[in-house]
Amino acid sequence: MHILGAAAGGGLPQWNCGCENCNLARAGEIPAQTQSSISVSGDGAAWAIVNASPDIRDQLRLASHLHPTDLRVSPIKSVLLTNGDIDHIAGLLTLREQQPFTLFATREIQNVIAANPVFDALAAGIVDRRAIALDQPFELVPGVMVTLYAVPGKVPLYLEGDVVDTQLQGEQTVGVHLESAAQSVHYIPGCAALSDDLRTRIDGSDLVLFDGTLWEDDEMVRAGLSQKTGARMGHMSMAGPRGSIAAFDRLRIGRKVFVHMNNTNPVLRPDAAERAKAEARGWTIGQDGMEIEL
């Protein structure tokens, strides 16, 4: 498994942001990060991408294991979507080059894609779109079985109405359970709360890559960048008595990695006190290019 992108929507630096982290990243003083995505393989030959980031072209350029093996022969055999957020689907348009692969997503997310004619660039008959039911295992690529399951979240911003349910559980936001011969892994880049069902599901796992969008729920408000809290955006924060760090303390997880971090999150700075606190509690801060053996 490779982390292709460890940042949340907008990446680091975000194009229109002059916050401390973005300025440090532009100056080369902290690592830049692209938007949320991972690649997975069971045999090292056939690969799947989980979430098609808007940054996918650069991510693929930097990932030698995903380079073409011959003239128009790609090792990428499938793409899996965990929700319909722009930072997880916009990269599909980069993959429109008459290249066969299978697009896996829940029925509701497939309907979101189908409703937007721009995605017809993924030509029918070339890209096989498969709707996946929750809690039904399927083979993502040879040697990797996957089960999708509901996690608390919300619909994408562009589908929000007047009333927004930020604890919605269904097919709009899912976690991914990846099982190989050696390990049990969960990838959950978006999550609003660690429900009892979710605790039970991930307890005892070898590895969990979890939503690390914000350090504190109101950090974007305090920074003057937004009026929305993390909870309003459908994301569980790291810190505090109700944060993910505290919640995971009671679980038996082999390795814990934060992904999908917003450009404002102080853990993106290697020398930050917040990063040291997270690492002291057993967490790894995910980074672009990080390789994790399954």
UniProtKB/TrEMBL annotation:
UniProt KW Membrane keyword: no
UniProt superkingdom: Bacteria
UniProt pathway: Cofactor biosynthesis; pyrroloquinoline quinone biosynthesis
One Pfam family in the UniProt entry: Lactamase_B_2
Record keywords: PQQ biosynthesis, Transport
Keyword Mitochondrion: no
Domain Metallo-beta-lactamase: residue ranges: 47-261
Biological process terms in GO annotation: pyrroloquinoline quinone biosynthetic process
PANTHER family reported for this sequence: COENZYME PQQ SYNTHESIS PROTEIN B, HYDROLASE C777.06C-RELATED-RELATED
HAMAP family documented for this protein: PQQ_syn_PqqB (MF_00653)
Family of the protein in this entry: Belongs to the PqqB family.
Function of the molecule: May be involved in the transport of PQQ or its precursor to the periplasm.
Name this protein carries in UniProt: Coenzyme PQQ synthesis protein B
Species: Litoreibacter roseus
Lineage: Bacteria, Pseudomonadati, Pseudomonadota, Alphaproteobacteria, Rhodobacterales
Gene field: pqqB
